[in-house]
């Protein structure tokens, strides 16, 4: 399923979701909020990236190494987010590059 999402006055996008969780068809009066889901997914990706970088930087510096980590974030209409099991299957795919000097 696709839900139209107005990001701002000029930007419209469609958020693809599986028909499960908040987007499941049911008798409940739950109205999906794709903009909230997208906003929360971006915030979760930022928070996760900061946490991973903070934990890895000292180890990378100590061993003179760099790292690149790719992950995907999935979200639902309630704004719930999760790190996807498959890095290629999420609404957002993120690539985190951590340099020993940075």
What does this structure look like?
The chain has 1 helix and 5 strands; from the N terminus they run ββαβββ. A 3-stranded antiparallel beta sheet has the order 4-3-5, covered by helices on one side. A two-stranded antiparallel sheet has the order 1-2. 29% of the residues lie in helices and 28% in strands. It has one helix at 34-63; strands at residues 2-6, 12-16, 67-75, 81-83, 92-98. It has one domain (2-23, 31-98). The mean pLDDT is 76. By secondary structure, the protein is an alpha+beta fold. The longest helix is centred in the middle third of the chain and has 30 residues, at 34-63.
Average pLDDT for all residues:
76
Fraction of residues in β-strands: 25-35%
Strand order of the largest sheet: 4-3-5
- The parts where pLDDT drops under 50 for at least 5 residues are none
Could you tell me how far the N terminus lies from the C terminus, measured between alpha carbons in angstroms? 41 Å
Give the proportion of residues in helices. 25-40%
| Tally of contiguous helical segments | 1
């Amino acid at each position: 399923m696709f839900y139209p999402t107005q990001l701002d006055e000029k930007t419209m996008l469609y958020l693809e979701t599986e028909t499960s969780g908040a987007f499941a068809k049911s008798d409940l009066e739950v109205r999906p909020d794709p903009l909230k889901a997208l906003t929360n997914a971006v915030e979760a990706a930022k928070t996760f990236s900061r946490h991973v970088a903070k934990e890895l930087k000292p180890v990378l510096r100590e061993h003179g190494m760099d790292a690149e980590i790719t992950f995907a974030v999935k979200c639902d209409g309630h704004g719930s987010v999760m790190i996807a099991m498959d890095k290629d299957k999420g609404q957002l795919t993120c690539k985190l590059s951590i340099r020993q000097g940075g």
